[in-house]
Design brief:
heterodimer; A: mainly beta; eight-stranded antiparallel beta barrel; three-stranded antiparallel β-sheet; 5 helices; 18 strands; 11% helix; 42% strand; elongated; B: mainly alpha; 8 helices; globular
């Protein structure tokens, strides 16, 4: 029998298309009616698929968060500005005996209040607020005798919100607030003021409770200090007089710490939660930067071996270079890759020598070697063959990492940690675009960089 | 013919009973069209239902000037909608090749009849068409069986005319090999 020509063949297929014996009893009118009359809207799957990628954009907020954390976080040390600010101690003409003098530090950032109690001859200076400098603040008080520049100064270290009473002894080495209505104040410090020594809570006595005016500067203290001499600005009217002040030294800050880690651990990978294959491994190095007490940023390079099994429906055969008209049935394979994780680590519970943490971030897979044992069908025949692909693909930020772990100190500078993890694919990876999910445990030894 | 006309008038005013009659009457015809394009039986039935929803929603667009050819024109209109629905479904899955066999229950082969052999042959032929990669399968179905031109195929699939011709040629080559092999086996058996 001769083979069919094209026309005969086409005619044969046309007849077959009309009369082939298909079971057509499965009509479902209810389904159609429901959709017609309830007007359900079917979103096309490509729209739904596009929604899956929207969360990827949130990850771009990570570097922005780093930048904000670095530049605006609480642990950043902000050097004290040397701002000329005067602390004015003034008292309205009181109608009662318990008049109050108010000290104001002109300028933006600081404020002080001075209270004095009639009869007690004391002037108390209270630093009410200081915005820019957490921790201790300093108010320096200058002494002025008459209209002469002050020669002796005292520095008061004040905790914001607390009251500081300032007084000095007129012993040639101290300074204090002066009541210009009474040329000299009898000032009694709690301790002697040495050169550049800071005085805390010295009391100032004032002879005139009703009218006190003095300028308080924040200058260096000691007699003979050259850089920032104080001037008390006389004010007989009781008006506030603003002098100049300089803020003191910078405050201590927590140090940002660099560290590095060696990591190793087993890895189990699966595709769409099908059966797992052999256990693989991860090993490599990570570097970290502790940007605050609880938060660190980590990145590194790991060498991964992942073993997996997949059904043919999950593999994209486009680039596999299979013979034409082949359909893949299943895949058994492994891949070697360089993984580049970028994670944020947050310490949840901190104890003295150990802590608990969680970590999240993204990884990139740079495939070095992919080995597939493919079972495929071609023209009704099944074939099994090994295929190997070298450096075939790079999948940047295609894996989401989530882990939680425990870390304990090891020696003075090192620590060891154990962290189970899950790695979830955002899409297909490798030449076959397989959605490989992994889980395992990473053991690491970390050491800070000195 | 009058019955079809009255059913269609009922569908125009969204009468449920008329729609149901039309659906049940032409479900098999539509399924046979779609099943040539879509590999999986379940997906094909879903696509047929999608197609009928589209038909009933846009029923007012159907026009037939020649009432004596109403059924022919209606079936041609329905066929186009079903083919478009099937192609949309294939494009949603990115024309990925499907694997696995087809279950026996989807076939309706009469065991003892004169036409059983022919039914089996037709079933085998359609199975071979279904085994083609989706892009070849669509080109073969649209050009050879459903009578579209390469230009129309290219527009529908977003490919070039050259690609359409190439896909068709490859489909033909594959099916021809199968048929010639089948004929040779038949010759050997008959010896």
């Amino acid at each position: 029998m001769q083979s069919l020509n094209d026309d005969d063949m086409e005619e044969l297929f046309r007849r077959a298309s009309e009369d082939y014996p298909l079971n057509t009893d499965g009509s479902d009118w209810n389904n159609v009616m429901q959709r017609l009359h309830h007007k359900e809207i079917d979103l096309p799957k490509d729209v739904k698929k596009s929604n899956d990628h929207r969360y990827l954009w949130l990850l771009f907020l990570l570097p922005i968060g780093f930048i904000f954390g670095i530049y605006f976080g609480n642990n950043k040390s902000i050097p004290l500005e040397k701002v000329n600010k005067g602390v004015n101690v003034s008292s309205p003409i009181g109608k009662s005996n318990a008049s109050k003098a108010r000290a104001e530090i002109s300028g933006i950032k600081t404020n002080a209040r001075v209270d004095h109690v009639t009869g007690a001859n004391k002037v108390e200076a209270k630093l009410v607020e200081h915005n820019s400098v957490p921790g201790l603040n300093e108010i320096k008080i200058a002494k002025r005798v008459g209209n002469e520049d002050v020669k002796k100064e005292a520095t008061i270290t004040v905790i914001p919100g607390s009251e500081a009473e300032v007084s000095t002894q007129d012993n040639g080495r101290t300074a204090g607030l002066k009541n210009f209505n009474n040329p000299r104040l009898n000032l009694k410090p709690q301790k002697r003021i040495e050169d550049e020594e800071h005085v805390t809570q010295d009391k100032i006595s004032s002879a005139d409770p009703d009218k006190i005016s003095a300028g308080v500067r924040q200058d260096t203290l000691a007699e003979g200090s050259s850089n920032e001499r104080n001037r008390i600005q006389p004010n007989d009217s009781g008006k506030s007089v603003t002098g100049k002040e300089n803020l003191g030294k910078s405050l201590p800050t927590s140090k940002r710490k660099l560290y590095y880690s060696f990591v190793i651990g087993p890895d189990v990978s699966t595709v769409k939660l099908h059966r797992t294959s052999n256990v693989g491994y991860s090993l490599g190095v990570m570097g970290g930067l502790q940007i605050s007490r609880k938060v660190a940023v980590e990145a590194g390079a790991l060498w991964d071996r992942k073993n997996y099994y997949a059904r043919g429906e999950h593999i994209n055969a486009e680039k596999l270079q299979l013979p034409s008209h082949s359909t893949v049935s299943k895949v058994d394979g492994y891949c070697d890759m360089i993984e580049i994780p970028v994670n944020i680590k947050y310490t949840v519970i901190t104890k003295r020598n150990h802590s608990w943490f969680i970590s999240g971030g993204m990884s990139s897979y740079l495939m070095q070697n992919e080995n597939y044992n493919l079972t495929y069908e071609r023209y009704g025949q099944a074939y099994v063959k090994d295929y190997e692909y070298k450096n075939a693909s790079k999948n940047w930020f295609s894996i989401v990492n989530i882990s939680a772990g425990y870390q304990t100190r090891w020696g003075k500078y090192a620590s060891i940690s154990v962290a189970p993890y899950i790695k979830l694919p955002l899409g297909g990876v490798g030449i076959g675009k397989l959605p490989i999910a992994s889980t395992g445990i990473l053991f690491s030894v970390s050491r800070s960089v000195h | 013919m009058e019955e079809l006309h009255s059913i269609m008038e009922g569908c125009l005013i969204n009468d449920h009973k008329s729609q149901k009659k039309l659906y049940e009457r032409y479900y098999g015809y539509a399924l046979k069209i779609v099943f040539r394009y879509i590999y999986r039986y379940e997906k094909a039935t879903d696509a047929v239902n999608d197609g009928f929803v589209k038909i009933f929603r846009s029923f007012k667009k159907f026009e037939c000037a020649e009432k004596e050819h109403l059924e022919k024109i209606w079936m041609g209109w329905m066929k186009r909608i079903m083919i478009n629905t099937a192609i949309d479904e294939l494009r949603r899955s990115n024309m990925m090749p499907e694997i696995g066999g087809l279950p026996d229950h989807i076939w309706n082969i009469e065991d003892k009849s004169q036409g059983a052999d022919q039914s089996i042959l037709y079933k085998e032929l359609i199975c071979q068409v279904k085994k083609l990669p989706p892009s070849y399968r669509v080109a073969f179905n649209m050009y050879i069986i459903d009578g579209f031109s390469h230009q129309e195929i290219a527009e529908k699939l977003g490919i070039s005319v050259g690609t359409s011709k190439s896909n068709l040629a490859k489909a033909r080559m594959h099916l021809k090999k199968f048929i010639n092999k089948d004929i040779q086996e038949a010759d050997i058996c008959s010896l």
